[in-house]
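Input record, target 12 of the design panel.
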């Protein structure tokens, strides 16, 4: 079984040229996991969204889970083959259900639900294996 480490959202970087971004997730050890974000999600997570009267699907998903008696417990970034995925753990009474989604969705759900975010050792090794973009360059 894989070990997991707690990670926290450090910041959201948004490319001024194209609007795409990345969420920089930090471990206590100083490792950085960069999750690429599409422009809309980067704006929402970066608190620069202007469509305040529109709901977002992730907010409704979290709300509906809670209405159905499911509590989102945690999000774990994991490696599925050579791709990162997020595993969302929901508890309803004594039942635990684990759902998979993209890492981008996992970061957004963790942010909206206010739940802890973790990464397996394999996911950290995969995600930190590529160098981060130097300052001043595009993010992709």
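The sequence produced for target 12 reads:
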């Amino acid at each position: 079984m894989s070990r997991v480490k707690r990670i926290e959202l450090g910041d959201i970087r948004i490319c001024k040229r194209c609007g795409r971004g990345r969420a920089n997730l930090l471990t206590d050890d100083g490792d950085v996991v960069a999750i690429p974000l599409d422009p809309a999600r980067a704006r929402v997570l970066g608190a620069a969204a202007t469509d305040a009267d529109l709901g977002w699907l992730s907010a409704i998903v979290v709300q509906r889970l809670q209405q159905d008696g499911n509590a989102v417990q945690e999000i774990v970034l994991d490696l599925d083959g050579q791709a990162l995925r997020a595993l969302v753990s929901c508890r309803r009474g004594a039942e635990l259900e684990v759902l998979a989604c993209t890492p981008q969705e996992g970061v957004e759900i963790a942010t909206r639900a206010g739940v802890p975010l973790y990464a397996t050792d394999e996911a950290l090794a995969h995600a930190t294996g590529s160098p981060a973009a130097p300052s001043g360059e595009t993010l992709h």
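The chain has one domain: 4-127.
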